[in-house]
Design a protein that fits this description.
The complex is a heterodimer of chains A (255) and B (265). Chain A is α/β, with parallel strands linked by helices and 255 residues long. Chain A has a domain at 1-65 and 186-255: Rossmann fold (3-Layer(aba) Sandwich), CATH 3.40.50. Chain A is built from 7 helices and 9 strands, in the order βββαββαααβαβαββα. In chain A, the strands form 2 sheets. Chain A has a 6-stranded mixed β-sheet with strand order 5-6-7-3-8-9, sandwiched between helices. Chain A has a 3-stranded antiparallel β-sheet with strand order 2-1-4, with helices on one face. In chain A, a hairpin with a 2-residue loop joins β1 (2-12) and β2 (15-25). In chain A, α3 packs across α4. The longest helix of chain A has 24 residues, at 227-250. The radius of gyration of chain A is 18 Å and the shape is globular. Chain B has 10 helices and no strands. The longest helix of chain B has 38 residues, at 176-213. The termini of chain B are far apart. Chain B is flat and about 70 Å long. Chain B has helices spanning 24-42, 53-66, 68-100, 102-115, 124-131, 135-159, 163-171, 176-213, 219-228, 232-260. Chain B has a domain at 76-260: MetI-like fold. In chain B, α3 (68-100) runs antiparallel to α4 (102-115) and α3 packs parallel to α6. The model of chain B has no long low-confidence stretch (mean pLDDT 92). By secondary structure, chain B is mainly α. The chains are: A alpha/beta (255), B mainly alpha (265). Chains A and B meet through β5 of A and α7 and α8 of B.
Chain lengths: 255, 265
């Protein structure tokens, strides 16, 4: 399954957030959305998964999702969005309970995803007992449990400290190597973008338009061996954004 | 160059961290009661000002032995339980509807706001006509008194549920009823329970008021009778019972909170 973004424009009241966005999300690729703060990248992500309705244009789902996919478009949130009153196990069960699965099947899916994210020993812990990195792992396990066709990740590593971020980035890379999932990955961190993105979409400041699309052909697991090349890409991206980031920084919010 | 002047950096942090200290509460109580006992026995406090604590205790024993205690306590507790059960259940129900549906909110919020500041005791004569002089009017008064704070606490608690949780639920395709049952309700529970503390305290106040205005038996009637005879020992015995009921209710809500809200940090 792929997504095709066709002529999307979006306003909040008088403020134009996105303008004439056209973009294809191809299967098996991670597409990173970057741009200065307030450029509408998170809004675009919400439009992609149907959490918000675009004013103009449409998001088309191209091709049928796989038969076993319970929730084809699945989000991973910056703040994890784990229910504090449910254990790790029950937080994952929450998103399976509405799918007419038998208890045994739910149990099987959960132990499977917990194993894939190395969380088996934490099944009965409450979110308050987990570190930020563990919480995001639980959120990733929850997302995997519904077998998504496309993962929509909204700054998934931004709430974590830099060491945890490195660890989770490695986890995401090995996960992608195993499962070749499709993802749209919003971030403001250029280092994350060049490490994880097959395609990096640079948005301009408000109203967000696509400024440039950069493709990186290096294999994800190989990227650690091409640090110079990646650094150069990262610097190029920063040059592209710098002036606008400066202006965006000095802008009044909601002005 | 070595500097001769040296001193330890003075400590200036600490404090402002509430911590439980055991036994202090009971000690203060014992000290207060002991002081009153001493004052009343020596005549330093006249027996027209305050009763002797031992005398109040004596009244308790007499009340217990004669069975009169239960004759007053049981109707009072029944009224409190039935009345506040009706008020709290209805309050949570209406509060949920206000919290979940904009139409209900627009329609009922002004009504609740108009009802909230009305001293419910003023409506007792009306309730006597509507529901009869017996138990009905007392149930209604307590129910109405506990209803309004419960409604306000419930819808405010629902408004405060983290919207990100709800977006998460929607993004995973949860049904509306699942979102309400598994995300909104548990998320609103802390607010609903702290509202319950206030509602039940108001319930006790209205119970006494209702019993003072028309009841043969009940703690309120007992206190009123003692007051009009200026029998301070019996008056204080009645007031102590009310205070104990309040403390027990508060403790009970605390137990429920600890049990249901273990997940809180």
């Amino acid at each position: 399954m792929e997504l095709s973004i066709q002529n999307i424009s979006h306003n909040y009241g008088n403020i134009e957030v996105l303008k004439d966005i056209n973009l294809e999300i191809n299967e098996g690729q991670i597409v990173c959305l970057i741009g200065p703060s307030g450029c509408g990248k998170s809004t675009l992500l919400r439009l992609l998964g149907g959490l918000e309705k675009p004013m103009n244009g449409k998001v088309m789902q191209m091709g049928e999702p796989p038969k076993d996919s319970l929730n084809p478009l699945t989000y991973i949130f910056q703040d994890f969005a784990l229910l504090p009153w449910r254990s790790v196990y029950n937080n994952i069960a929450l998103v399976l309970e509405d799918h007419k699965l038998q208890k045994k099947e739910i149990d099987k899916i959960i132990s499977n995803v917990l194993k894939r994210t190395e969380l088996t020993n934490f099944a009965h812990a409450l979110p308050k007992q987990l570190s930020g990195g563990m919480k995001q792992r639980v959120a990733i396990a929850r997302a995997l449990s519904v077998s998504p066709a496309i993962m929509l990740m909204d700054e998934p590593l931004s709430a974590l400290d830099s060491q945890t971020r490195e660890l989770l980035m490695d986890d995401l890379i090995s996960l992608w190597e195993r499962e070749k999932f499709t993802a749209v990955y919003v971030t403001h961190n250029l280092a994350e973008a060049v490490r994880l993105g097959h395609k990096i979409v640079v948005l301009s400041r408000r109203p967000g338009t696509i400024k440039k699309i950069v493709e990186i052909d290096i294999d994800l697991k190989d990227r650690k061996n091409h640090i110079l090349e990646l650094n150069k890409k990262q610097n190029d991206l920063w040059e592209l954004m710098k002036d606008e980031a400066l202006i965006a920084d000095k802008e009044l919010i909601n002005a | 160059m070595p500097n001769k002047y040296q001193k330890e950096v003075p400590f200036r942090g600490g404090g402002f961290t509430p911590k439980p200290i055991m036994y202090i509460g009971p000690i203060v109580f014992i000290f207060l009661i002991g002081f009153l006992e001493w004052g009343t026995t020596t005549g330093w406090i006249s027996d027209l000002t305050l009763p002797k604590p031992s005398g109040v205790f004596q009244v308790f024993i007499e009340l217990h032995n004669s069975g009169l205690l239960y004759k007053h306590l049981i109707p009072s507790l029944t009224r409190l339980i039935v009345g506040s059960f009706m008020g709290v259940t209805l309050g949570i129900g209406i509060g949920l509807l206000i919290g979940l549906f904009n139409l209900v909110r627009a329609g009922l919020l002004p009504v609740v706001a108009a009802l909230f500041p009305v001293p419910k005791i003023a409506l007792l004569p009306l309730f006597v006509i509507w529901f009869g002089i017996d138990e009905g009017s007392k149930y209604a008064l307590i129910a109405l008194g506990t209803f309004t704070p419960t409604v306000v606490a419930t819808y405010a608690a629902i408004d405060n549920v983290d919207r990100n949780f709800i977006r998460m639920g929607q993004s995973f395709g949860l049904t509306w009823i699942s979102i309400v049952r598994k995300i909104v309700l548990p998320g609103a529970l802390p607010g609903i329970l702290s509202g319950l503390r206030i509602s039940l305290a108001i319930g006790i106040i209205l119970l006494v008021a209702a019993e003072m205005l028309g009841a043969t038996y009940g703690i309120g009637a007992y206190v009123l009778e003692a007051g009009s005879l200026y029998d301070l020992e019996r008056l204080f015995a009645g007031v102590t019972i009310l205070s104990i009921i309040g403390v027990i209710i508060n403790w009970f809500v605390g137990v429920v909170e600890r049990k249901l809200l273990k997940w809180r940090t």
